[in-house]
Amino acid sequence: MNTQSPSGQSPLQSPSPVIVALDYPNKEQALAMAQQLDPAQCRVKVGKELFTASGPLVVDALHQLGFDVFLDLKFHDIPNTCAKAVGAAAELGVWMTNVHASGGRRMMEAARNEIAKKNHQPLLIGVTVLTSMEQQDLADIGLNVDPQLQVKRLAQLTEQSGLDGVVCSAQEVGLIRETCSAEFLTVTPGIRPAGAEQGDQRRILTPEQAQQAGVSYMVIGRPITQAAEPALACQRIVESLRG
Ligand SMILES: O=c1ccn([C@@H]2O[C@H](COP(=O)(O)O)[C@@H](O)[C@H]2O)c(=O)[nH]1
C-alpha cells in the first residue's frame, strides 16, 4: 500500500480505517471541522462540493494539518480527459483519488498509465455502484441487474484494469474478497452507526459490521460532521473498531 506522505512531513500511516467526508460549501467550514479531528485517528475526503468551491487550496491546507487526503471527484470521461484529470490530482499530492469504473477498461487503463508517469502516485480506485442506489435505480437507467452482481462485475473489471481497489458498499465486500485478490482495496461509504439517520444512502452497514466484513477503509460523513460533538463521534467510532 502507498504510505507516502503527501505533506512531505512524517508519514501518517494511520492504522485507522476511517475517512471523514468533509462535505462543506467552503474551505473555512471544512478546515474548522478538520481542526477538530486527529490525523492519527482518521483520513479526510474532499468531494465535489468542497473542491468545486475551494479548489486545490483546501487540499494544501489539509496536508498542512497533517491529513492524508482522498480526492473523491469520481472522474468519468473519455480516456484522454480522464487520464489528464487523474494526473492533475496526482500532482496535488493526494493519498487516493478515483474514477467511475463504468467509464470502462480503456478509461481506467489510461488513468492508471498517467499516474505511473508521476513522481507522486496516489492510490487509484474505481467507483462501482453508488451506495445511494438500489435495484430500482439501476432499472431506471436500463440496468436490469442486481446491484451486487453489477458491483462484482465492475470490481473484476477494475482489478483487470490495474487499479488499486473499488468504492462499494460494505455489504458487497465479502463478494469482492471471493472474486478479487487479497490486496485489492475496498473503500466503503454508506456507513451508519446504529441509530444514525440513513438519509439518501441505501446499501448501508454499521462501522462494526463493515469491519467484520473486512473493508479496507470506511468513508463516514454526516454521522460525524453533523454530530453535536464531531470529534467525540469520530473518536467513539475509532474506539469501537479497536475494541
Ligand atoms: O458510492 C458512493 C461514493 C461516494 N460516496 C461519498 O461518501 C460520502 C458519504 O457521506 P455520508 O454523509 O456518510 O453519507 C459522501 O461524500 C459521498 O459523496 C457515497 O456516499 N457513496
TrEMBL record:
One of its GO terms (molecular function) is orotidine-5'-phosphate decarboxylase activity. Residues 17-237 form the Orotidine 5'-phosphate decarboxylase domain. Keywords: Decarboxylase, Lyase, Pyrimidine biosynthesis. The active site is at 74 (proton donor). Its EC number is 4.1.1.23. Substrate binds at residues 23, 45, 72-81, 131, 192, 201, 221-222. Pathway: Pyrimidine metabolism; UMP biosynthesis via de novo pathway; UMP from orotate: step 2/2. Pfam families: OMPdecase. It catalyses: orotidine 5'-phosphate + H(+) = UMP + CO2. Signal peptide: none annotated. It comes from the Bacteria. Catalyzes the decarboxylation of orotidine 5'-monophosphate (OMP) to uridine 5'-monophosphate (UMP). Homodimer. Belongs to the OMP decarboxylase family. Type 1 subfamily. NCBIfam families: PRK00230.1, pyrF. This is Orotidine 5'-phosphate decarboxylase. The gene is pyrF.
